[in-house]
Amino acid sequence: MSRAVVFDLDGTLIDSAPDIHAAANRLMVSHGFAGFTPEETRAFIGHGVPHFIACCLRARGAEAAGELHRQMVGEFIAGYETAVTLTEVYPGVHAALERLADMGLALAICTNKPVAPARAVLAHLGLEGHFPVVIGGDSCPVRKPDPAPLQAAAAGLGATRVLYVGDSEVDAETSVRAGLPFALFTEGYRKTSLAEIPHQTAFADFALLPDIAADLLT
Questions:
Q1: Same-domain pairing of 156 and 190
Q2: Active site residue 102
Q3: Model confidence over 174-191: pLDDT tens digits?
Q4: CB neighbours of residue 58 within 10 Å
Q5: Which of 175, 166, 180, 178 is nearest to 90 (CA)?
Q6: Using one digit for the tens of pLDDT, what is the confidence trace for 141-178?
């Protein structure tokens, strides 16, 4: 029986909100809009780039669909691969990933970030070697919370027992729809209380994750 842990990326393994905030403000200002506070852009994260840009436009009273939206999505993605300098790995992630691998668990990424920027930031932070499978927001015809990307990650690993680890309402819904157990990292970008988010377990310290995985994947 092949066992695996699949991770969300932004707000789960890495704190990328500062880079996303800076990239969004550069884009907005270039189109004549006012920028945002870090808290504002953080609230837009989780559903992929098209949704993120729609939220940015809507917040400034602009049309959230159409040609301007398409143009800004393209421009944001074009600069996204180099938006890595402010991003940091959450404490304990490196050690947890090494321990999970030592336990014989396969590891993958399932994120709504486009796959090229996802791979770029993993490489920049020295995490890419842990993840033979990376499913991004543009890897499948649909994005999370549709279960297909998570199922694709599991299939790519050939895993039959899978734990999903994420930080948000989107990740929780994805797990529910895929019928997989979910471990909620509480220090990420969730917008609602823990009680409102379906999860099998929650944790704030990555040192706890290997034992969580061992328990939920027995």
A1: yes
A2: no
A3: 999 999 999 999 999 999
A4: 14
A5: 166
A6: 999 999 999 999 999 999 999 999 999 999 999 999 99
